[in-house]
Design goal:
Layout lengths: L5 E5 L3 H12 L3 E6 L10 E5 H10 L2 H7 L1 E3 L1 E5 L7 E6 L11 E5 H14 L3 E4 L3 E7 L2 E6 L4 E4 L1 E4 L6 H5 L7 E13 L7 E6 L2 E8 L4 E9 L8 H12 L6 H7 L6 E10 L5 E2 L2 E3 L5 E2 L7 H18 L5 H30 L6 H13 L3
Parallel strand pairs: 1-2, 1-12, 2-8, 5-14, 12-19
Antiparallel strand pairs: 3-7, 4-7, 5-6, 9-10, 10-11, 13-16, 13-17, 14-15, 15-16, 17-20, 18-19
Length: 376
């Protein structure tokens, strides 16, 4: 018997949907609230490393994700010259195990839709346009008042509501989210036929100019610059800026550049980082995913860390007889060292690039690959 009978998950992103599904599969009554009115996902594309694919397989959605996404085992590095000369073809480590691809690119909205549909199939009660307004708890549970005026009582509340977590604010948990110093343009575009894996160019007007296939016909391209305030930029300016940056690169970028015209296919965010020290809970309310930790996408581990949180939490809750402080402490103690190492490594890569410093990138990436190859 699981340690909980009913659980509220706040946030329908990757970590929230995965947590809800795994607990519902174990017989727990799960309710999930999502503040947006429908299944949504910020950004155009996402890279999922092997350790993320391992959890997608656990969730039973890996095959569907592979049908919609684009798996690869190689990273191509090109020079910032007019021909984008290939300088290296690197075989990526299969951190999910030898039977899984090294990585997979996906259109973010496809992944969000698949995960939420799986949660619904598992019996999760999903409520959109709703979030938590108030939390009151005692030793046996949490009383919740929602934004629509309804109420409920739960054995455990899981705050998986992202970087700016409202659950974290309700708990009055102090956490400083720091800008790393880089901003990233992401563009959803058609895939040139020659692009069959992730590729990256270091140098030129951007720190990194790269792209990752997200399906047989699409990719997301990214351009990393110094972080700037782009909040007031018009749609026309957005397209012009991205085309200007992309125009400095050759090779497949020429074909990608020709397709960049829709401002709706472009988004811009800053690299940010934070890491909550243990414990990650207050009473019977627990924070996971970006609500507890976030890192720049230099190692493409953000989604994987959230999926691992979900897997470990479900494992602990379904193996215990009751929820207590020791159980929730053990969750953070198990996750924190691994998460800290990934977050710090991701930030270190960004800092080397900002300083134009030649750090030992192969050693750092090898260390993280070895770490994430071990099941969480």
């Amino acid at each position: 018997m699981a340690a909980v009978e009913n659980v509220l998950v706040v946030g329908g992103g990757i970590a929230g949907a995965a947590t809800a599904t795994l607990l519902a599969d174990a017989g727990v009554s799960v309710e999930l609230v999502e503040i947006t009115p429908d299944v949504t996902a910020l950004g155009s594309g996402i890279t999922l490393q092997g350790n993320a694919l391992r959890v997608l397989r656990q969730l039973g959605v890996l095959d569907e994700c592979l049908e919609h996404g684009y798996a690869a085992d190689q990273l191509v590095l090109r020079a910032p010259d007019p021909d984008a000369t290939v300088v290296a073809r690197l075989t990526e480590h299969r951190t999910g195990g030898p039977d899984l691809p090294a990585s997979m690119g996906m259109y973010r909205p496809d992944l969000a839709r698949i995960l939420m549909a799986r949660a619904e199939q598992a019996g999760v009660k999903i409520r959109f346009s709703t979030t938590v307004q108030e939390l009151e708890q005692d030793d046996s549970g949490v009383d919740v008042r929602f934004s629509d005026g309804s109420t409920g009582r739960y054995d455990l509340v899981v705050g998986a509501d992202g970087l700016r977590s409202w659950t974290r604010r309700l708990l009055d948990v102090p956490l400083e989210t720091r800008a790393v110093g880089m901003g990233i343009w992401r563009v959803f575009a058609p895939r040139p036929a020659e692009v069959v894996s992730s590729e990256a160019i270091y140098g030129g007007p951007c720190y990194i100019a790269g792209y990752t296939p997200t399906s047989g016909s699409s990719l997301y391209a990214f351009l990393v610059e110094d972080a700037q305030d782009r909040t007031t930029i018009t749609d026309e300016e957005k397209v012009a800026v991205v085309r200007g940056l992309a125009g400095a690169y050759g090779g497949p970028w020429r074909e990608i550049l020709a397709s960049i015209s829709d401002p709706g296919a472009i988004n811009y965010t800053w690299f940010e980082e934070h890491l909550l020290d243990a414990p990650w809970h207050r009473g019977r309310v627990l924070l996971i995913g970006d609500a507890a930790h976030t890192c720049p996408p230099t190692l493409a581990q953000g989604a994987a860390l959230g999926l691992e949180d979900a897997s470990v939490l479900a494992e602990l809750l379904t193996a215990a007889d009751a929820v207590d402080d020791d159980l929730l402490v053990s969750f953070a103690e198990r996750r924190l060292p691994r998460v800290r190492e990934v977050v710090e490594a991701s930030v270190q890569l960004a800092r080397w690039q900002l300083a134009h410093e030649q750090g030992d990138v192969p050693a750092l990436m090898g260390r993280i690959a070895h770490l994430t190859s071990r099941p969480a």
